[in-house]
Batch of 2 targets.
Target 1
Amino acid sequence: MLQLLLLGCIFFPLLAAAAAGLDKDGRSRRVIVFTGVGVTALSALGLALYGGFTLPVTTGGGLSELMTVLDFALLLVILYIASRMRHKLCAMLAVAQLLGMAYLDFALLDGPAPAMFKADALSLVMVLVISFVGGIVCMYALGYMKEHEDHLRLTVSRQPRFFFIVLLFLGAMNGLVLCDSLPWIFFFWEVTTLCSFLLISHDGTREARANALRALWMNMLGGLAFVAAMLFTQKALGTLSVERIIEVMGDPAAHTAATLLPLAFLAFAGFTKAAQLPFQSWLCGAMVAPTPVSALLHSSTMVKAGVYLVLRISPALAGTMLAGVIALMGAFTFVATSALACGQSNGKKVLAYSTIANLGLIIACAGIGTPAAVAAGVLLIIFHAVSKGLLFLCVGAVEQQIGSRDIEDMRGLYRVMPRTAIIMMIGMMTMMLPPFGALLAKWMAMEAAAAAPAFMPVLVTLIAFGSALTVLFWARWAGLVLGGDPLAAEKPAAEQMPASMTCALRALLWGAILLSLLVPFIFAGIDDAIRILYGTNGAFSVSGGVFRNSMGAFAVYPLFALLALGVWLSLRQARRAAVRKPDLPYFSGIQQTEEGKLGFNGPLNVFVENRSSNYYLEAWFGEEKLTGKLNTIALVLLVVMLGGLL
């Protein structure tokens, strides 16, 4: 049974990908995609119900040898792409990885490295996030991509290629989180790198190709660090098993420069994949891709691989200065990219910087490395994936409707797309307000930082300030969505959207709400796994839906009851309110309307339309103002992290 579930999570998406790629006329696409994501999701659920497991790969089966061959084949494909596109840096990084893997396989190892499939609470959480959230994004793409290609006026559909890559992506991500052997993880790691390049460049524009190449070389740089980590790990510890590395490094006496250096390289690889400063530009550039690609990269796949890797090795780093620097880098990225998000009016860029910020907070939790911090990091992975996936899909639907992703153009969206506007607003609430899981996880992270011995005052300050900035940009956006034009019609317009897109939005909306309601039970499962790993609980007790520790409490169910009461009272009062014509703004008596637009009579009797917009504090939070300085600080921290061990 276990083998079948593994096949369903890793290999069945590959079969579905091949079928989608061969279905050129699209007649069976819907059946293939629904079957592919359905079997993958059910298999992931089966693994979660099965619980933790360890399944060694038999050395006589030839699977390890096949993975070695696939490693080299994949790197050769990337080298071919880099050469064809005449990108010297990508080609050099691919050659360096090939040489490193050749030295590892033929000089350091006596035969293939022992491998096994292994799952604990972290792996199973990742599999569920990848399979369910990623699967819902695939369903959404069925309706979205048709409209997207109609907008591009394509004569030949690229959807077979698109769904081939997306389904391949899901299988590769599940393989990455379920493998224990570093060479096997590296293979799936680079598959996700290649898939992200192909998806970002999907539309074929010059901007798309340029941004895809940036994503490729930055992630290839992380791949090279991954290869270096395997070389140093094999020499220093004589193993490429993540489980064995954590076991050996659990002894503080093993914390030497030689043993910590490969872990620093793995953390570096995680930073590039998670688009942490100074590598954030590749993820912001990925916004040129179709919205389902953005949702996949930002919520359930790709970037989550980076934080997964750093969280996975965090027990091996506990108590080291390296862990403290990683925590500091994550917290710095959290506050820096939250500030950058405040200076954006492009909806996708706000979501991009918010994603990078939340990933930074997860990495800060991994660096802190205490049971409470790791539990907070895992919860952040869950709630961020669902809520951020929902918001990306909402922005994609809005962009197709109004032709813009600028949040200023979404002013009064409720009048145009009432259902989507309400779903989007609730999605923003789940990211910033109690009692939803994202805020609970941030509270837990702040509590863990307050108890951390390394950089404690700095970490708490950075996390607190970053959290305050997130409220600023979410509240501003939500207010725009619910605002309205005083001249607009009273009744919202009828909203039309493909069924697959509507179902995807509703599934993620209810997922964000229900998961927050179930958070005490989710935490209980995570806490049990952490107790096994660390020998102690996560420092939080849960009773009656209230999380408690020595510093305070977070009342989930009482706050939900208060929220429900507030919503009921608000709706009751709204129904009782009398309908009246809104008062128009006063422009010194010269206001007038023209063609349904509000304005005033300007110079030379020329009508001037009234326009209002938010202040984006570009002097403080603008990209041009901050990016260079922030990247410099991040580079210094990277040098400290690696240079202190060399």
Target 2
Amino acid sequence: MRNIILLLFSLFAVATGLRAQSVQQQLSAVSDADYAGYDIVTLFDSTRVVMEESGLSHVYGHVLYKVLTPAGGRDFNCVKMDYDPLSAYVEIREVKVHRKSGLVEKIDNPVLDYPAPARMIYWGASQKMVAVGRLEPGDAVEYVTYKKGFTYALLHDSDPDAKYIPPMRGHFYDIVPFWSHQPVREKVYILSVLPSKKLQYSVYNGTLQSSRKNVDGRVVYSFSKKEIMPMKKAPHTLADNDVQTKLILSTAENWQAKSMWFYGVNEDYGSFVPTDEVKQKVAELLRPAKSENDSIYILTHWVADNMRYSGISMGEGEGYTLHKCEMNFTDRCGVCKDKAGMLIAMLRAAGFQAYAAMTMAGERIEDIPADQFNHCVTVVKRRNGNYQLLDPTWVPGVRELWSSAEQQQNYLMGLPQGAKLGLTPVSKAENHYLKMSATTKVNKKGALSGTVTVTAEGQSDRTVRALFRGRRSEWRANVERQLFSLYPNAKLQSVKYTDEDRYLEQPVSITYRFVIPDYATVTDNVVIVTPFLAKGFYKFAMPHLSYDTSLETRTMPFSDRCSRLVQISETMTLPPGYTSAQVPKARTATGGAVTFDGGYKLQSSVLQFHENIRFGKRIYEAEDWPSYRQAVMNQEFFMNTPVVLSR
């Protein structure tokens, strides 16, 4: 092993040329003007990995960065490594500060080991850190690190190093971002594997310099990139790993192999064996069920609504190994894998074939079978042979079985026969409608009176139902606030809404009766008014209105929360006698998955207003932006352009 490590150091020097210059020469060669506006610049970031036959990997890091601003000296004055003590071992081996004056200080401060900051998931993650002390612009920090192990702990045997071996024993995988939020002059990644390990890799969203060499009976792969500059992304652009350069490596044969391993590790552990108590509960829950759909719906929402999302460390058995049914049913508490595992056990108790599946919320999963997962869900096999995804984590209080905020998202089912990587389909916009209808009247004093009804389904239903989270005593105030936040002088005559406790039985519906004094401008000669629903009522349920339309073009894909249909209609009765009208012209937008149709119809003293807006998917390509932008601009136009009537 020592010879291999020495060999890698030598290869690293040849590959990068960094040893050819002293650190001070490298620092003096950096022109701060080239990196104006940034707090630090990393001169080099090197990673050298040695993989053993078992899959255990030794990772050696070497980084040098220069402070450019006082803020950089403040924010980057600590060397820090995140790790899970149950599955990884880390060392901060050396830290030096190269002062602007040329003085080199070796930092002898103690290496501190603290629990990592956590929220909702408390799995015992830790951070090792070394305080560097005061840094000034022109100073630089150099540090050397070592790590073995991986991200998540699993069950392991008595071998002291077993807990550091990856879940798929004998295999290696890594996801290496070649992007940064601060400039990097050069980044290098070197991997040494045995010839028997069939490594596959791919570079996404860019190019890298690469080489492959046979050295001393091993195969050494080298990847590097120079002058990595932070990308300026427009709001709502996809995740960095989806649009910036990354390297993915894996020795796993394919996704089918990963699928069968995931199935086997949980079946061997007995994660989904229902206890007698669980069987009794399932029988009780399914008494009113009349169909296959009823059974799946009842069990999914029972788990969703009755297991609190909060993860605590159970020691051995975190990560890919799902906790056993008995513990989940007793604790009624856990993270996504616990909720998914509980649902699998209950479905099996009901006679269904059910399995666990892995997915990646918020990012794309590439074709290289590496560990690109952050979420666990359930899959059930229907009587017709089709598999259906269920997500008890994302559907508490939601009428769906699978959150459509996860559409166009990759997933991998853990099946005994193996499965290929899947992609969740687009959910029709009609499944997520937001409908608002109003009948209103403007009197001669400009007061507006009327009735407005808001209904929603799918993910729009979920958004509107946010008003009913928290204390029941606050629900009515939350509903009323939607009116008063726009019109503080409004007089609310009544408000009615569906029974939140029976949310599974019908979509949400809220009806307001109100009077708003001085709503419109009314004189003997003119009426100036904008329909109530044109002005952005329930704007929080229309996330597209938060998009910046000043951006004329996009070069990268972007995302919305979900596909969506917005239908707005209002019939407004106006004071009689005004015969001349300046009515905003109808507007449309059509292109790809987005359509808009909106406008007015004036007949005598009755003004009718409508908008129909369809957003057909969650992830859009750059070429979809013009039609998406136009639809938003059209709605904003009607929000800000009044109708003018005169005698």
